[in-house]
Design goal:
The protein contains 26 helices and 36 strands. It is of the alpha+beta class. The two termini are 19 Å apart. It comes from Phalacrocorax carbo.
Length: 735
């Protein structure tokens, strides 16, 4: 029986922002497969790619996430067709980025992986001063003790700390000797499997400063393994059958191997030490050492290639090799210490990250010499790629790519079509030609009159106002001398509060509470109406009057396929780490993923989380179990999720950008829609119908991706949005 293609993507929580290079990576693999040296995307996985009937990309020109959520109800078919969604970084020339048009790559320097020999890749002095590495460490070389994490940094990043409540029973390495710049470095890495208890160690590797492997042991967990995570851990059931080594054995061996002044090095080493249940006072974390803006982190695989010129975690291997990862982290720390922050900043890692995949494209392109591609012969000359990249490869193999909309593709490449072409005409042409093509890009547009900056600003303000309404509730009445702190504590158990203000214009005081997540406001209304808070019974718990028309929107968000099988849990203690929560919730049936949101400014965990289950019924059952559950002395509350994926992050950004914030909340009734907005609403509805018709005509097993490219304007950058899925035999988007 022929295998059907399937798509999986870990687009949950904060892992749902995709760059145009990552999107290109997906399209290239979907279109070409392994036979043309394309590789599986790093952020999602296509199973049985060779059985794809085709790839169709629908681009909604000049539209962004703002349009999708402003017209969420109008995009009725679009939001029901696609389960996988992701935030898309806006691009100046979006269409070109889809197939590599005008790419201009610098050659690789073999000594430093992706580092270019061109002076254009070396930042200016002023750029260096703004580099997060320079801001954190300065420009001068320093000894290794300058790069070990302080106690505060360890606490902030969930490292096991002696005496902390979550580390009861943890083993201390007893490496308590004073560290110096000549203290020995040791690389450490673990692989974990998911057990009934949570993440447990199944393999441990330790390497010394010379890269010699001192320990590389399999470990049998105490609890039953529920998921081997073989794709990442490399661990199989067969491998662990003869193993008798347990965690205490490993803890004893590590204590013997490490000298009293040892400095441990690893990438996100906190997770390894948590899983080992060990405490070590002196660590260098390479995920924090190579600092980035906004708390983001480089992946170890990228750093190894960009800085060391080494390929690790190769797809050909089954899972990660912890000895290889430990050695890579160690060498990265040694490179940083020996070269100093200024030299590391000159590598311009952010720029290299965006060009890494394009460098791979340039290598593949060299195989297409008969098509006029120029092979680079000298490293000191830039490589200029032809206008079309993997579309060229498709044509070489006899496949016919199709581009409809603002541009059309003929045998000589993209050419301009009539700009007055309507969406209806594009749809008619697509219905005829898309089934005949293996790769299609279809562009629809609202028209220039609907993307004017003043109209965009108006939409932005209305969306922000609507979000504020949905995040805000009024509670009361309270006694004159009520305790505001008690009110904040009780309502804070429903989720993170952005602002809390007392309304004194009424006969008795009321409190206006603005939350940071949609679920918290709904949960407060559902669970605290009639409850006793600060000595008063809440007689009225309501949304602003402007919120009355949002009931339908809330209901539709609950039913959204993206929130299927996902629940929201509030009332968590902020001291609980992700590892703690995985352990606490491990008894829940079919739990797939846990997402613990962070404040994007402080980086601290919020007092809520999202749980995603493999089956919808398991999520329903979990709600019954969790409501009223006491965890570490705190009573939990839960409900169905409304904004568990990329929407959660987007709401936070919208709520903190240019709008009124905590303590300065004013409500005004939004006026009726203008003629242009009414026309736009009708246009969007029609566009949704077009997408539905086009999707219906696609063959089964076709990968379909709908893109809102995003926009950069005088009113700021508007993130894009992507929706994707593989059409199954029933005409729906398969996971």
């Amino acid at each position: 029986q022929e295998k059907s293609p399937r798509l999986s993507a870990a687009l949950f929580g904060e892992d749902c922002e995709i760059s145009r290079d990552q999107l290109y990576e997906l399209l290239k693999y979907a279109a070409l497969g392994k036979c043309h040296n394309a590789t599986q995307p790093s952020w999602c996985h296509i199973y049985h790619q060779s059985h794809l009937a085709g790839v169709v990309v629908i681009v909604l020109h000049e539209m962004s996430q703002l349009h999708f959520y402003k017209f969420y109800l109008q995009f009725k078919h679009l939001r029901k067709l696609f389960r996988h969604r992701f935030t898309l970084t806006p691009s100046a020339n979006f269409l070109a980025s889809l197939y590599g048009e005008g790419a201009n790559l610098k050659p690789q320097n073999t000594a430093q992986g992706l580092t270019s020999t061109s002076s254009e890749c070396i930042p200016e002095i002023s750029d260096l001063e703004c580099d997060p590495i320079i801001r954190k460490y300065g420009e001068k070389k320093q000894g290794l003790t300058s790069y070990t994490l302080t106690l505060e940094e360890q606490k902030k990043n969930d490292y096991p700390i002696k005496g902390s409540p979550g580390c009861k029973g943890f083993v201390d390495t007893e490496c308590d000797q004073q560290r110096t710049d000549s203290s020995p470095l040791f690389g450490l890495d673990c692989e974990m499997c998911l057990t009934a208890k949570g993440n447990e160690v199944t393999r441990v590797s330790l390497v010394d400063a010379q890269g010699q492997c001192l320990l590389n042991e399999l470990v049998k967990p105490e609890s039953t393994i529920v998921n081997y995570r073989t794709r990442f851990s490399g661990i199989t059931k067969k491998m662990l059958l003869p193993v008798n080594t347990r965690l205490p054995d490993i803890q004893t061996r590590l204590k013997k191997l490490l000298p009293h002044d040892a400095v441990l090095v690893g990438h996100s080493l906190n997770a390894d030490l948590q899983a080992l249940e060990m405490i070590h006072p002196s660590v260098i974390d390479t995920s924090l050492l190579f600092a980035r803006n906004e708390g983001r982190r480089f992946k170890l695989k990228f750093l190894a290639k960009a800085v060391l010129g080494k390929e690790i975690q190769c797809e050909q291997k089954l899972g990660h090799d912890p000895a290889e990862d430990a050695r890579a982290a160690l060498e990265l720390a040694q490179f940083f210490i020996e070269q100093g922050p200024a030299k590391v900043a000159e590598l311009n890692l952010e720029k290299l990250l965006t060009t890494e995949k394009l460098a791979e494209v340039s290598q593949n392109k060299a195989a297409l010499q008969p098509q006029g591609c120029r092979v680079q012969k000298q490293l000191n000359e830039p490589l200029h790629l032809p206008k079309t990249c993997f579309l060229d490869c498709l044509q070489v193999t006899g496949q016919k790519p199709l581009l409809l909309g603002r541009q059309e593709l003929d045998s000589s490449g993209p050419c301009q079509s009539n700009p007055s072409t309507s969406n209806k005409q594009i749809l008619q042409r697509a219905l005829e030609d898309v089934p005949l093509s293996t790769f299609s890009i279809i562009q629809f547009s609202l028209g220039p009159e609907y993307i004017a900056s003043h109209l965009l600003a108006g939409l932005c303000e209305k969306v922000r106002s609507k979000l504020t309404d949905m995040l805000t509730i009024y509670a009361g009445p309270f006694e004159e001398s009520f305790c505001l702190k008690s009110v904040k504590k009780e309502f804070g158990r429903c989720g993170p509060i952005q602002s809390l203000t007392v309304v004194t214009e009424t006969y008795q005081p009321y409190v206006c509470i603005q939350y940071e997540v949609l679920e918290a406001a709904q949960l407060a209304v559902e669970s605290l109406n009639g409850a006793e808070v600060a000595g008063s019974y809440i007689k009225e718990l309501l949304f602003p009057q402007a919120m009355l028309d949002c009931d339908v929107l809330i209901r539709e968000l609950e039913l959204d396929v993206e929130n299927e099988g996902v629940i929201y849990v509030a009332g968590l203690k902020k001291s609980l780490t992700e590892t703690d929560l995985q352990e606490e919730f491990s008894q829940l049936k079919d739990l797939e993923t846990l997402f613990l949101p962070k404040d994007l400014q402080s980086g601290k965990h919020r007092n809520c989380c999202f749980l995603k289950f493999q089956k919808s019924q398991s999520a329903v059952d979990a709600l019954d179990v969790i409501n009223g559950w006491t965890m570490k002395g705190s009573k939990l509350r839960s409900r169905n999720a409304l904004a568990s994926g990329h929407l959660c992050r987007w709401i936070w950004q919208m709520n903190h950008s240019n709008g009124k914030q905590g303590g300065d909340i004013s409500y005004k009734k939004m006026g009726p829609l203008s003629d242009s907005e009414q026309d736009l609403t009708k246009k969007v509805k029609k566009l949704d119908q077009h997408i539905k018709k086009l999707y219906r005509c696609l063959q089964s097993n076709t990968l379909c991706i709908v893109l809102f490219p995003g926009a950069n304007s005088m009113h700021g950058s508007q993130s894009g949005l992507g929706l994707m899925g593989i059409k199954d035999d029933r005409g729906r988007s398969a996971c």
